[in-house]
Design goal:
Largest sheet: 4 strands, antiparallel
Number of strands: 16
Structural class: alpha+beta
Order of helices and strands: HEEEEEEEHEEEEHEEEEEHH
Helix content: 10-25%
Distance between the termini: 164 Å
Strand order of the largest sheet: 4-3-6-7
Radius of gyration: 37 Å
Number of helices: 5
């Protein structure tokens, strides 16, 4: 009989505690839609929903198969994003992140484990998107020279902010797309360096150029970065009609005629006033 009472008491406590556990964990809803956003190794983790005043979020980052670390700026936070750029010290390592739903700062909970949501795996070297590059253009005697700026990243090596060239090294290529400004046909050129020369251009034509990063070691669909804004060369043999619109030319002609008319009018008026002015009397000789 004593054993029966003990078992009954155990079951009573268990079933009494279980709803309390469910109720406590329900205070901290699990994060949803955990995704990565990364451009030029500037990597941010975002998720939903925005927390109420009753709970907060903490982010833990770990290399795949490694130990997790809590991110200092993302502990018991009310934000739904966490910048992990500086925490990913090795761009060639793959990472996962956990978003934990925890009590807000200053509140103590009896729970030992909190609801969490694990992110998809993210490999910065292979997955970060590459922004459009900037370049200068010089065209002379049928040859175009483009000098591309290797874009900076969000990754530091000591005190040095690394560029895409520092990280990708010989894997960083630039693809140039160019065409005659009066044509739709396009050609491409691939370069392993930041100084690109395009030869065989028609000197009588104006050409437009766009540049994008090309990383051949990446999987298909992730090899190319965004296209730069186009830059066009000047046509040395172009007429005034090619440079200016008819409206601008007509306006300039009207302005010149008006100025000419004003000058002529002022000149005529001045001459008439001089003729009408009385002549001074001549002094006699003593």
């Amino acid at each position: 009989m004593a054993t029966t009472r003990i078992e009954a008491g155990f079951y009573f406590l268990s079933f009494s505690f279980f709803p309390m556990l469910l109720s406590a964990s329900g205070l901290y809803p699990q994060a949803e839609n955990v995704i990565w956003k990364s451009t030029n190794f500037k990597t941010v983790l975002v998720w939903e929903p925005k927390p109420s005043a009753n709970y907060s979020y903490t982010v833990e980052l770990s290399p795949v198969g490694g130990n997790a670390q809590r991110i200092p700026n993302c502990i018991q936070s009310s934000q739904t994003m966490c910048d992990l750029s500086t925490a990913m010290t090795d761009p060639k390592t793959c990472y996962v992140a956990d978003v934990l739903s925890e009590p807000p700062q200053g509140v103590i909970s009896e729970l030992s484990e909190f609801p969490h949501k694990t992110s998809p795996k993210f490999c910065p070297y292979d997955d970060t998107e590459i922004d459009r590059p900037k370049f200068t253009l010089e065209v002379s005697k049928g040859k175009a020279t483009l000098i591309v700026t290797d874009s900076p990243t969000a990754i530091f090596n000591g005190q040095h902010l690394q560029t895409l060239r520092d990280i990708f090294s010989e894997q960083l290529h630039y693809k140039v797309t160019y065409w005659k400004s009066k044509s739709t046909g396009k050609k491409t050129s691939d370069s392993k360096t930041s100084m690109i020369e395009v030869t065989g251009l028609d000197q009588a034509e104006s050409y437009c150029f766009q540049v994008q990063v090309y990383i051949p070691s990446r999987t298909y669909g992730k090899q190319f970065g965004d296209l730069s804004h186009p830059q066009c060369s000047e046509d040395e043999n172009q007429s005034i009609l090619d440079v200016y619109s008819p409206a601008v030319i007509i306006s300039a002609i009207i302005l010149i005629l008006l100025l000419t008319g004003i000058i002529i009018t002022v000149t005529v008026v001045c001459c008439k006033r001089k003729k009408k002015a009385p002549k001074g009397e001549k002094k006699g000789v003593v």
